[in-house]
Write a structure and sequence with these properties.
Pathway: Cell wall biogenesis; peptidoglycan biosynthesis. One of its GO terms (biological process) is cell wall organization. It is found in: Cytoplasm. It is globular and about 60 Å long. The strands form 6 sheets. Strands 6-7-12-10-11 form a 5-stranded antiparallel beta sheet. A 4-stranded mixed beta sheet has the order 1-2-5-3, with helices on one face. The chain has 3 domains: 67 residues, Uridine Diphospho-n-acetylenolpyruvylglucosamine Reductase, domain 2 (2-Layer Sandwich), CATH 3.30.43; 149 residues, 2-Layer Sandwich (Uridine Diphospho-n-acetylenolpyruvylglucosamine Reductase, domain 3); 111 residues, Alpha-Beta Complex (Uridine Diphospho-n-acetylenolpyruvylglucosamine Reductase, domain 1), CATH 3.90.78.10. With 345 residues, the protein is α+β, with helices and mostly antiparallel strands. The protein has 8 helices and 18 strands. Bound molecules: uridine-diphosphate-2(N-acetylglucosaminyl) butyric acid. Uridine-diphosphate-2(N-acetylglucosaminyl) butyric acid binds next to α7. The site of uridine-diphosphate-2(N-acetylglucosaminyl) butyric acid has 18 residues, from α7.
């Protein structure tokens, strides 16, 4: 246990003040013991994994920060079980490159821990973990017991889950995935950008390792693969979710486009999902926008980045400027995707 521990180095943004106390847990038992100890005395608790989707305020966290550093993975046929602390990108690489299995190959290169993937229903390039997660083993702080949630009980939707909806209730310990064996081929390619890369039709398949590799290249080109020396990757990935508009909101939005063509994808219940990156770009905030220590990535407008000496306040003031500019230009309210600790937009 460390007192007054710096948290910035534990986040991919490298931002945030210290924790009153930092505990690192290497086994499920240590995780549960630390959670129970905090809950018994009403101590504020922040659970962190890879820190890749986290914006911590400059004042830090006045309580216990529990870092999940559990390890262990088993693969039995196509059933994969990962301890929450396993590095997600490494687990994906192993499954694809050593076992030739499909189901998570398009989720290559995503920073963060396995235990965080169900929380925000991690997704990219046409796959979401909700498509392969069969069960999540979690500690239920409300009941004080260990539970196994089925996929349906996880309440998954776009970048959302029951774990995100009830943030003070669940601590994810293990995640089980049902992978697919297509004899070394990928699941059907859904994302036009990836299909174009191979000159195949959307819906076609390629070697699973080739799909994995293509995604890594695409992500790296957008600054979405961590690189200590590249400030474009000092981000929390996409800072805003892609807006999902009701039919009425979508009509009002179209009326403001003046003939410009914004990306539009069908979403559940007749809604339309558009692109936050496009809105930001077309509201006048181009790649690299900003003159302070926090700017837009030079590779993607949806990543807000720390150029090395930013504070969380710098990042949030950039985020507020962008949210206001997009609202003024298009009448659409952007919502932050990363978890905010001790701060709000
Ligand atoms: N675009 C711009 N300017 C830019 C970048 C993109 O106008 O600088 C427009 C383009 O029209 C492009 C569209 O935005 O076609 C969409 O861009 P992209 O394909 O990069 O995807 P995204 O919607 O910005 C989402 C996820 C990413 C995920 C990619 C790939 C969200 C919030 N983000 O980004 O996830 O990797 O698709 O599937 O859903 C994350 O959640 O942190 C994340 C990185």
């Amino acid at each position: 246990m460390t007192e007054n521990a710096p948290l910035a180095p534990l986040t991919t943004l490298r931002l945030g003040g210290p924790a009153r106390r930092l505990v690192t847990a290497h086994t499920d038992q240590e995780v549960i013991a630390a959670v129970q100890a905090a809950d018994a005395v009403g101590e504020p608790l922040l659970v962190i994994g890879g820190g890749s989707n986290l914006v911590i305020g400059d004042a830090g966290f006045d309580g216990t920060v529990l870092r999940i550093a559990t390890t262990g993975s088993t693969l039995d046929g196509t059933v994969l079980e990962l301890a929450a602390g396993e590095v997600w990108a490494d687990a994906v690489a192993t499954v694809v490159l050593e076992h030739g299995l499909a189901g998570i190959e398009f989720l290559a290169g995503i920073p963060g821990s396995a235990g965080a993937t169900p929380v925000q229903n991690v997704g990219a390039y046409g796959q979401e973990v909700s498509q392969t997660i069969t069960e999540v083993v979690a500690y239920d702080r409300r009941a004080g017991e260990l539970v196994t949630l089925t996929n349906a009980e996880c309440g998954f939707s776009y970048r959302h889950s029951r774990f995100k909806a009830e943030p003070d209730r669940w601590v994810v310990l293990r995640v089980r995935f049902g992978l697919e064996d297509h004899g070394g081929l990928s699941t059907p390619i859904r994302y036009p950008e990836v299909a174009r890369h191979y000159g195949v039709e959307a819906g076609g398949r390629v070697e699973v390792a080739a799909a994995w590799n293509a995604v890594l290249e695409l992500r790296a080109g957008k600054g979405m693969v961590l690189d200590e020396t590249d400030h474009d990757t000092w981000s929390a990935g996409s800072f805003f979710t892609n807006p999902v508009l009701t039919p009425e909101q979508y009509q009002a939005f179209l009326a403001r486009l003046d003939g410009r063509q914004a990306p539009a994808y069908p979403a559940p219940d007749g809604a339309t999902k558009t692109s936050a990156a496009w809105l930001i770009d077309h509201a006048g905030f181009r790649k690299g926008y900003g003159s302070g220590p926090a700017t837009l990535s030079t590779k993607h407008t949806l990543a807000l980045t720390n150029r090395g000496r930013a504070t969380t306040a710098d990042l949030l003031s950039l985020a507020r400027e962008i949210r206001a500019g997009v609202h003024a230009a298009f009448g659409v309210e952007l919502v932050n995707e990363p978890v905010m600790v001790g701060v709000e937009l």
